[in-house]
Write a structure and sequence with these properties.
Blueprint lengths: L3 E3 L4 E3 L4 H14 L8 E6 L3 H10 L7 E4 L27 E2 L16 E2 L21 H9 L7 H11 E3 L2 H4 L11 E3 L7 H12 L14 E4 L4 E2 L2 E2 L2 H9 L5 E4 L2 E9 L4 E9 L4 E12 L2 H11 L2 E2 L1 H6 L6 E2 L10 E3 L3 E3 L11 H14 L10 E7 L15 E6 L7 H7 L3 H7 L7 E8 L7 E3 L10 E3 L6 H18 L2 H4 L4 E2 L15 H10 L1 E3 L31 E3 L14 H24 L1
Parallel strand pairs: 3-4, 3-15, 4-12, 7-8, 15-27, 16-17
Antiparallel strand pairs: 1-2, 1-15, 5-6, 9-20, 10-11, 13-14, 14-15, 18-26, 19-22, 19-25, 20-21, 21-22, 23-24
Helix pairs in contact: 2-7, 2-16, 4-16, 13-15
Family: Belongs to the GMC oxidoreductase family.
Cofactor: FAD
Keywords: FAD, Flavoprotein, Membrane, Transmembrane, Transmembrane helix
Length: 608
């Protein structure tokens, strides 16, 4: 019996009785897709960055059938306007996750909760992010291998970074050791730069930083962003990998369908498919002959594993979930965070302002006609410095950055919806509201290797309940020390002649909850970063990869869930240690390598 239709009230086979065909027809009409009535070789859960690439690669094998199930719908052209990145976080394509309140961070955000936007759309968070493409550092991946993840060292993963890259920057494309111009994922410099961003790179040079291609041999230095963009538009995983792949008859994409459980035989401990709920409420099942692959991300993948009986035994039992595999699912949560209110004013319009209606109309027309101008700036961020700190707090090795100093040519208060997308509360906004009518910019000093660890836990056994998210930001004092060092580095950049020709200065209004401390002292900064904590949405590590001796590992080095057959996880959740940079590009690499692992496994099996 291959297929089922089920609901709260009944469950029937689709083919023994004539009445079953009636239900099949109803399901087809309601869902608008016949895909759910077919058994597939592979069922992929999640159409984000990893799922998009993986579905494309597996469907290259014409003999294999692939079902990709996505909880959201299609992305649209408005979501692909680079400057509007934050606006999509206010729409239905965002899962709308919020962390639990804590005493250490996010204190100045609404409810004391950080917002964790995640993409609920084909392309996933690659439709929500700020499009910055960074791979991380060679020693990040060599560190994975040293920790027991054989086959994941830098020399092993570099070919996978190269395979999908479509480098459009001519000077970088010439470096064929580190770049590839023929891949599907377009990467380029945005077609517009503000004078403020140019001043930032001049300031970095003035302080002795070298210009670098941070995705090549040396990561330390300054650069304009390499972005996943093409012709002034966002280039998501959906556009890069699914657009063409969806023309293949062996790939079916099922949208607006929430997977609620992995189907696992308790005797053979083998995954055979998934149960999912359509947008109209109908619950169905899809079956996989070869594998079920979770690519639902660092929040949804561990949630789904736990709902299916794979996770911490005592916690699952307390929720009435039958435990199939006791595992550290949901632990090891890591993220990159920064200080969200490091604002500076200048005496000239060198950045991006939103309060000039006529100028904004001109910018909109320029973008519509030529796909350039401020609307082509990736979420308002333009350049960065990767810096290795020479402080007692730093523990990095040679050539590995402690912080990324990210430059934005506007400020969060300059446009209230952007502030709201971040989640800042109204009392703090009142202190910074005057910036909406001033020429200003901001800098994010982002820690690269935080020591604090959070976790994802189930709120209940109901798959529609959002999980409990414990960020645990800044629970280790090291993390705050590194961010404070990054603030000092940012101040040094602004004190250069490159910025002082515009009379750049730190916005002098103190953060209200931290007024008891001397303004701009380390105690003031330590207070401030705990109130206006800013996450870069790089959550990872919750289904940790490791070898058989690693008791914290959820998946092995082939990304197979330990103790369960025919079940893999392929997304940011498998990352053992967070790399030095933004995560979307490493996630593509993980999916690219996973595709080879899967092809090697089943191609050899099919020949037997």
């Amino acid at each position: 019996m291959l297929f089922h239709i089920s609901s709260k009230y009944f469950q029937i086979s689709l083919w023994p009785r004539k009445s079953a065909y009636v239900f099949m027809l109803i399901a087809f009409i309601l869902s608008g897709c016949a895909a759910q009535f077919v058994e597939y070789d592979f069922v992929i859960v999640g159409g984000g960055a990893a799922g998009s690439l993986l579905a494309s690669r597996l469907s290259e094998v014409s003999e294999w059938s692939v079902l990709l199930i996505e909880a959201g719908g299609e992305e649209n052209v408005l979501q692909d306007i680079p400057l509007f990145a934050a606006f999509s976080q206010l729409t239905s394509i965002n899962w709308g996750y919020e962390t639990e309140p804590s005493s250490t961070a996010c204190l100045g955000l609404v409810g004391g909760q950080c917002k964790w936007p995640r993409g609920k759309v084909l392309g996933g968070s690659s439709v929500l992010n700020y499009m910055v493409s960074t791979r991380g550092n060679r020693k990040d991946y060599d560190g994975w291998e040293e920790e027991g993840c054989e086959g994941w060292g830098y020399d092993d993963v570099l070919p996978y970074f190269l395979r999908f890259e479509g480098m459009l920057i001519p000077r970088l494309a010439e470096d064929t050791v580190y770049h590839n111009a023929s891949g599907q994922l377009a990467i380029t410099y945005p077609p517009y730069r503000t004078e403020a961003a140019r001043s930032f790179t001049e300031a970095a040079k003035e302080l002795g930083f070298n210009k670098t291609d941070y995705n090549a041999g040396n990561q330390i230095g300054y650069s304009f962003h390499q972005c996943t963009m093409k012709d002034g538009l966002r280039f998501s995983g959906n556009r890069a990998f699914l657009k063409f792949a969806r023309t293949r008859p062996n790939l079916h994409v099922l949208k607006k369908s929430l997977v609620t459980k992995i189907l696992i035989d308790s005797n053979s401990r083998t995954a055979s498919g998934v149960q999912y709920k359509l947008f109209n409420g109908l619950t169905l099942k899809a079956f996989a002959r070869k594998e079920v692959i979770l690519s639902a991300g660092a929040i949804n993948s561990p949630q789904l594993l736990m709902l299916s009986g794979i996770g911490p035994r005592e916690e699952l039992q307390s929720l009435g979930i039958n435990v199939l595999q006791d595992a550290k699912v949901g632990f090891n949560l890591q993220d990159h965070i920064s200080f969200g209110t490091l604002y500076f004013t200048v005496n000239s319009s060198i950045g991006i302002r939103f309060d000039n209606v006529l100028e904004n109309l001109f910018n909109a027309a320029e973008y519509l006609l030529s796909r350039t101008g401020p609307f082509a700036v990736a979420g308002g961020t333009e350049a960065l410095v990767f810096q290795e700190l020479n402080t007692s707090s730093s523990n990095s090795t040679d050539g590995v950055p402690d912080i990324e100093i990210l430059f934005a040519s506007s400020t969060l208060p300059s446009l209230k919806p952007v502030w709201d997308a971040w989640g800042g509360n109204s009392d703090i906004y009142a202190a910074y509201e005057p910036l909406a009518h001033k020429d200003s910019f901001m800098i994010f000093p982002m820690i690269m290797h935080p020591r604090s660890r959070g976790r994802v836990a189930l709120r209940s056994a109901d798959p529609t309940d959002k999980p409990l998210l414990y960020h645990n930001y800044l629970t280790d004092p090291y993390d705050a020390d590194i961010i404070i060092s990054g603030i000092h580095s940012s101040l040094q950049l602004v004190n250069t002649s490159a910025f002082q020709k515009y009379a750049a200065e730190l916005y002098p209004v103190p953060l209200p909850p931290c007024e008891e401390y001397e303004f701009a002292s380390d105690k003031y900064w330590n207070c401030s970063i705990r109130y206006t904590t800013f996450t870069f949405y790089h959550q990872c590590g919750t289904c940790k990869m490791g070898n058989d001796s690693d008791q914290d590992a959820v998946v092995d080095t082939h990304l197979k869930v330990r103790g369960i057959n025919n079940l893999r996880v392929v997304d940011a959740s498998i990352i053992p240690l967070i790399p030095s940079g933004h995560l979307t590009t490493p996630v593509y690499m993980i999916a690219e390598k996973a595709a080879d692992l899967i092809k090697n496994r089943w191609s050899s099996s099919d020949k037997v």
